[in-house]
């Protein structure tokens, strides 16, 4: 049975993560969902700084004991909060019709541990922003970029709120990650029933254009209605324009491109598109 890994931290994006995961479960023939919440000690401000330089020995010992008790209390609260988050996730997913839900809480940082938990997953779902992101400045979640780098499976980045998806645009540049996305879309059930747009930013490259035509044929053979969009310009602007003009519901792209969408996930077109578009993004490495 296919399995979806849904990452939650109880932030404003959490319910959207559950809704996107539930949608993916339905598309993937009732896939099971594994929800994980990480207890990350680095997000807590340490209460163990040395305040005792001029304090006598007895008072210093009492202070240190109180600090130890405070740390233990904070850890207990964080654990209970995590349990509440997972209970909420399970309830939400069950109400959305997901039959098999597993929820676990682990110690560590998601970006450091994700490779262990995604091994048995067919899809990873994560929110665009988390508890430590600055919403007003549009910053991405601190884990997102590193998680995408670490994942071998597709990563679905949830938008602020879930909305029904009928169309997707695949940003195609002829690179291996874009071709991997085409193969996945053609062979897997996740996007079945949606109208496909293949977007190539550029012109005059016969090799890429031949590959684009082959990708179009592959998607059509898999049952998709396909529209080709070929434009010149800056990839970020062109992708944003196509998303708006064609009323696109999902952006599909490689996390590491090949040509003008080439730069890395950090500081790249990919990162910029995740930050600026208001729709979910499906990423492939």
UniProtKB/TrEMBL annotation:
Family according to the record: Belongs to the universal stress protein A family.
Annotated source species: Thalassobacterium sedimentorum
Upper classification of the organism: Bacteria, Pseudomonadati, Verrucomicrobiota, Opitutia, Puniceicoccales
Protein name: Universal stress protein
Domain UspA intervals: 3-157, 211-285
